[in-house]
Write a structure and sequence with these properties.
Residues 20-292 form the AMP-dependent synthetase/ligase domain. This protein has 356 residues and is α/β, with parallel strands linked by helices. It has two domains: 45-204, Rossmann fold, CATH 3.40.50.12780; 207-328 and 348-355, 3-Layer(aba) Sandwich (Rossmann fold), CATH 3.40.50.980. The protein contains twelve helices and 14 strands. It has helices at residues 18-26, 42-58, 75-86, 100-110, 122-128, 162-169, 205-219, 236-239, 241-247, 260-270, 279-286, 337-340, and strands spanning 31-35, 38-41, 66-70, 90-93, 112-117, 139-142, 185-190, 200-204, 226-229, 251-254, 274-275, 297-301, 315-319, 352-355. Strands 6-5-3-4-7-8 form a six-stranded mixed beta sheet, sandwiched between helices. α2 (42-58) packs across α3 (75-86). The longest helix is centred in the first third of the chain and has 17 residues, at 42-58. The protein starts with 17 loop residues before the first helix and ends with a strand.
Length: 356
């Protein structure tokens, strides 16, 4: 019996990156990412992520190096949740709503070697870099978006762009860098935008695998959901759903801007089944003249504002987002109210289910 322990044949480090491989192998022809008129399948998404990982390695990115991204919910942002750690690097998603000084602090503290930036956030990044320059300035790679050419600044002064990098240096057959240990770092998040100095937290492959599976189970996500990205992926990695949607071979519907007309248009056009959002987002939808009675499912963060009319969903799950914790749910039971009075709620607000 002593010879029946773990070995390379029956044991491997836990990582959510394997969800992408399985989705491409089993459901390769299913739509993975939808952005306006652009549609990728799971096979295409895997190949693009492998190209990204290969390109990063060719640029000298080593395991443990930090690669940052400043972008909204676009396909490249989704691909980086796989492609960056597939190179062995650590992904750092930065809030696009921060001021240049805070962004500069994050880039310096994280020792970012490379920054991918959406063209509309390029002026913000260029303002941040001189504020507190790191010892070695990071390489800046703009992300091309064919739908934003009119509003985006020209990119010809940069040596490469995201799509050129994938095309010229990416290998779709790249053997991605698997973690030697499930405790290896995979993402770096910051609790930025608060009254105190930003605080960084590193999540490992094991932790993200577990929170991804826990989130799917806790929300009872079925196979092949159509997930509408109203929650920014830079917000605690979209509550782990970039990896979760891959695990169930769903479809990611990306939204660059979140407003009521865009959300309801996407819900109708793509027949979205799931979405996430803060209370202000759900309140906006509930009070919009574009409101649609078709059911969908929406978890939200923290406690909502004064009671609005019922939002257009049949199931709502209230939760908290925390950059420094990977728990998926805490439950409140009857009889706890008196004991909770006068106390803080720890990391984030309590979370419970409400079904209409």
């Amino acid at each position: 019996m002593d010879e029946l322990g773990a070995n390379a044949t029956n044991s491997a480090p836990l990582t959510p990156l394997g969800f992408l491989e399985r989705a491409a192998l089993v459901h390769g022809d299913r739509a993975s990412v939808v952005y306006r008129d652009t549609v990728y399948t799971w096979s295409q998404t895997l190949r693009r992520c492998l190209r990204l990982a290969s390109a990063l390695v060719s640029l000298g990115i080593s395991p443990g190096d930090v690669v940052s991204v400043l972008a909204p919910n676009i396909p490249a942002m989704y691909e980086m949740h796989f492609g960056v750690p597939m190179s062995g690097a650590v992904l750092n998603t930065i809030n696009t709503r921060l001021d240049p000084r805070t962004i500069s602090v994050l880039l310096r503290h994280s020792s970012s070697k490379l920054v991918f930036v959406d063209p509309l956030s390029l002026p913000l990044l260029l303002s941040a870099l001189p504020s507190s320059p790191p010892p070695t300035p990071p390489l800046v790679v703009p992300i091309d978006d064919p739908y934003e050419h009119e509003q985006a600044p020209p990119l010809h002064s940069f040596p490469t762009t995201y799509e050129k990098l994938l095309e010229e240096k990416g290998d779709p057959e790249f053997q991605w860098v698997r973690p030697r240990s499930e405790w290896d770092p995979m993402v770096l998040n910051y609790t930025s935008g608060t009254t105190s100095a930003p605080k960084g937290v590193v999540h490992c492959h094991r932790g993200l695998f577990l929170v991804t599976v826990d989130s799917l189970v806790d929300w009872s996500v079925p196979p092949h959901p159509v997930f509408l990205w109203t929650l920014p992926m830079f917000h605690t990695n979209g509550w782990s759903f970039p990896w979760g949607v891959a695990a169930v071979a769903g479809t990611n519907v990306c939204l660059r801007r979140v407003d009521a007309p865009a959300v309801f248009s996407a819900l109708r056009r793509h027949r979205c089944t799931h979405m996430c959002g803060a209370p202000v987002v759900l309140n906006m939808l509930a009070n919009s003249p574009h409101s649609d009675p078709d059911p969908d499912s929406a978890p939200s963060t923290s406690s909502p504002p004064a009671r609005p009319r019922r939002p257009p969903c049949s199931t709502a799950r209230r939760s908290s987002g925390s950059a420094s914790a990977t728990g998926t749910a805490s439950r409140r039971r009857r009889g706890w109210r008196c004991r909770a009075r006068g106390r803080g709620s720890g990391t984030g607000s309590p979370r419970w289910s409400a079904r209409g």
